[in-house]
Amino acid sequence: MKLREVILRQKVPPGHVALWWLGQNGWILKSPRGKVITLDPYLTNACKAVGAAVGLNFDRLVPPPLAPRDLAGLVDAYVMTHGHEDHLDPETVRPYRATGGKGPFVAPPETCEKLRKLSVPDAEIEMIW
Question: What integer is the mean pLDDT of 52-64?
Protein backbone atom coordinates (compact mmCIF):
# COMPACT_ATOMS: atom_id res chain seq x y z
CA MET A 1 0.00 0.00 0.00
CA LYS A 2 1.30 3.46 -0.89
CA LEU A 3 2.00 5.96 1.87
CA ARG A 4 -0.83 8.24 0.71
CA GLU A 5 -3.33 5.42 1.27
CA VAL A 6 -1.79 4.54 4.63
CA ILE A 7 -2.23 8.15 5.78
CA LEU A 8 -5.80 8.37 4.51
CA ARG A 9 -6.79 5.11 6.23
CA GLN A 10 -4.95 5.70 9.51
CA LYS A 11 -7.30 6.24 12.46
CA VAL A 12 -5.80 8.40 15.20
CA PRO A 13 -7.04 7.86 18.77
CA PRO A 14 -8.12 10.91 20.81
CA GLY A 15 -5.19 12.52 22.59
CA HIS A 16 -2.68 11.31 19.99
CA VAL A 17 -1.18 12.41 16.70
CA ALA A 18 0.12 10.24 13.88
CA LEU A 19 3.48 11.18 12.33
CA TRP A 20 5.16 10.14 9.09
CA TRP A 21 8.71 11.18 8.24
CA LEU A 22 9.15 12.34 4.65
CA GLY A 23 12.93 12.34 4.79
CA GLN A 24 15.16 15.35 5.32
CA ASN A 25 13.14 17.77 7.51
CA GLY A 26 9.70 16.88 6.17
CA TRP A 27 6.78 15.46 8.12
CA ILE A 28 3.10 14.68 7.82
CA LEU A 29 0.92 14.89 10.93
CA LYS A 30 -2.64 13.61 11.30
CA SER A 31 -5.04 14.52 14.09
CA PRO A 32 -7.79 12.42 15.69
CA ARG A 33 -10.33 14.43 13.66
CA GLY A 34 -8.59 13.45 10.44
CA LYS A 35 -6.88 16.77 9.68
CA VAL A 36 -3.57 16.33 7.87
CA ILE A 37 -0.72 18.84 7.94
CA THR A 38 2.52 18.64 6.04
CA LEU A 39 5.55 20.37 7.55
CA ASP A 40 8.52 21.30 5.35
CA PRO A 41 7.85 18.69 2.65
CA TYR A 42 10.94 18.33 0.47
CA LEU A 43 9.86 15.64 -1.97
CA THR A 44 12.42 16.08 -4.73
CA ASN A 45 16.19 16.18 -4.98
CA ALA A 46 16.29 19.78 -6.24
CA CYS A 47 18.92 20.84 -3.70
CA LYS A 48 21.47 18.46 -5.19
CA ALA A 49 22.11 20.88 -8.07
CA VAL A 50 22.23 23.85 -5.68
CA GLY A 51 24.92 22.13 -3.62
CA ALA A 52 26.87 20.93 -6.65
CA ALA A 53 27.08 24.52 -7.90
CA VAL A 54 29.07 25.45 -4.79
CA GLY A 55 30.99 22.19 -4.40
CA LEU A 56 28.79 20.64 -1.70
CA ASN A 57 26.83 17.40 -1.56
CA PHE A 58 23.16 18.25 -0.92
CA ASP A 59 21.94 14.90 -2.23
CA ARG A 60 18.92 13.45 -0.40
CA LEU A 61 19.75 10.92 2.29
CA VAL A 62 16.64 8.80 1.61
CA PRO A 63 14.28 8.65 -1.38
CA PRO A 64 11.05 10.63 -1.02
CA PRO A 65 8.18 8.38 0.12
CA LEU A 66 5.59 10.45 -1.77
CA ALA A 67 5.49 12.36 -5.03
CA PRO A 68 4.54 16.05 -4.70
CA ARG A 69 1.26 15.39 -6.52
CA ASP A 70 0.34 12.86 -3.79
CA LEU A 71 -0.13 15.73 -1.33
CA ALA A 72 -3.02 17.22 -3.36
CA GLY A 73 -6.32 16.24 -1.79
CA LEU A 74 -4.47 14.78 1.20
CA VAL A 75 -3.25 17.75 3.24
CA ASP A 76 -5.40 20.36 4.93
CA ALA A 77 -2.48 22.72 5.58
CA TYR A 78 1.01 23.09 4.12
CA VAL A 79 3.43 24.53 6.70
CA MET A 80 6.96 25.81 6.08
CA THR A 81 9.31 26.88 8.86
CA HIS A 82 11.49 29.03 6.60
CA GLY A 83 12.38 29.65 2.97
CA HIS A 84 15.40 27.41 2.33
CA GLU A 85 14.77 25.13 -0.63
CA ASP A 86 14.76 21.99 1.51
CA HIS A 87 11.78 23.47 3.42
CA LEU A 88 10.07 25.47 0.67
CA ASP A 89 10.87 23.30 -2.33
CA PRO A 90 9.60 24.92 -5.55
CA GLU A 91 9.74 21.51 -7.23
CA THR A 92 7.32 20.19 -4.60
CA VAL A 93 5.02 23.24 -4.53
CA ARG A 94 4.60 23.49 -8.33
CA PRO A 95 3.32 19.93 -8.96
CA TYR A 96 1.26 20.05 -5.75
CA ARG A 97 -0.54 23.13 -7.07
CA ALA A 98 -0.71 21.79 -10.64
CA THR A 99 -2.62 18.73 -9.42
CA GLY A 100 -5.16 20.74 -7.42
CA GLY A 101 -3.31 21.27 -4.14
CA LYS A 102 -4.44 24.36 -2.25
CA GLY A 103 -3.56 26.27 0.87
CA PRO A 104 -3.52 27.35 3.46
CA PHE A 105 0.23 27.69 3.10
CA VAL A 106 1.47 28.69 6.55
CA ALA A 107 4.87 30.38 6.69
CA PRO A 108 6.96 33.27 8.02
CA PRO A 109 7.05 36.54 6.01
CA GLU A 110 10.13 35.91 3.82
CA THR A 111 8.78 32.49 2.86
CA CYS A 112 5.40 34.01 1.96
CA GLU A 113 7.18 36.22 -0.58
CA LYS A 114 8.73 33.15 -2.19
CA LEU A 115 5.28 31.52 -2.34
CA ARG A 116 3.92 34.56 -4.17
CA LYS A 117 6.73 34.23 -6.71
CA LEU A 118 5.50 30.66 -7.26
CA SER A 119 2.05 32.11 -8.09
CA VAL A 120 0.40 31.02 -4.86
CA PRO A 121 -2.49 33.49 -4.34
CA ASP A 122 -2.52 35.66 -1.22
CA ALA A 123 -5.88 34.14 -0.24
CA GLU A 124 -4.08 30.80 0.33
CA ILE A 125 -1.14 32.21 2.33
CA GLU A 126 -1.20 32.57 6.12
CA MET A 127 1.75 34.57 7.42
CA ILE A 128 2.91 33.58 10.88
CA TRP A 129 5.54 34.66 13.36
Answer: 93
